[in-house]
Amino acid sequence: MDVRVHSSFETTLAPSLVVDALVDMTPQRPLIWPHLDPARFVVRDRGDGWAIVMEGDRQLPIWQLARYEWSTPGTVTWTVLESNFCTPGDGIRVVVVPLPGGGSQVDIYWRRRPTSLLGSMIAVVHRIAGTRTLRSSYSRVFERLAAEAAPEP
pTM for the complete prediction? Predict the structure, then answer.
């Protein structure tokens, strides 16, 4: 099974801040992305515009070792190197484009080919509701960050 999902939405968060949130590889990452388990977040290596990162889910027993790349302006990709639920080469690409007047257009391209029963269940959920699920989880994070970045009245 090869599941591909595309989700698109707008956020009030500036494009640079969207990209910053996606590529934050500091210990703050699990605070930015609440589904990440802080105990399983490890940056294995990093360079200019890339990082190799081990991440696990806070609620599900899944993990992945992925290579994040952000050398192309406005684009962040992460490609699975190893995982207990999907195939190496799977991953996500996020394209961020500035909107006239401020904010960002965010396009998420998600691909998974499951290698386990749990991976198959995740793939089926994303096949059915992936567009809505991705939009909801990412836009919540970006809108929270936009509210935090907004100057106080």
Answer: 0.92
**What DSSP letter does each residue of 11-43 carry, written as one string?**
ESS-HHHHHHHHH--STTHHHHSTTB-GGG-EE
Query: Alpha-carbon distance 35 to 100, whole Å?
Result: 31
DSSP for residue 106: E
Domain span at residue 63 reads: 3-149
Looking from the CA of 142 toward its CB, the CA atoms found within 13 Å total 24
- Per-residue pLDDT of 77-100, as tens digits, reads 999 999 999 999 999 999 999 999
* CATH code of the domain covering residue 119: 3.30.530.20
- Strands 75-83 and 91-98 turn out to be antiparallel
Contact assessment for residue 61 and residue 117, using Cβ atoms and an 8 Å cutoff: no
Number of compact structural domains in the chain = 1
- Mark the ranges of the chain whose per-residue pLDDT is less than 70: 152-153
According to DSSP, the residues that pair with 42 across neighbouring strands are 54
Classify each residue of 107-129 as buried b or exposed e, where b means 16 or more C-beta atoms within 10 Å of its C-beta.
ebbbbbbbeeeebbebbeebeee
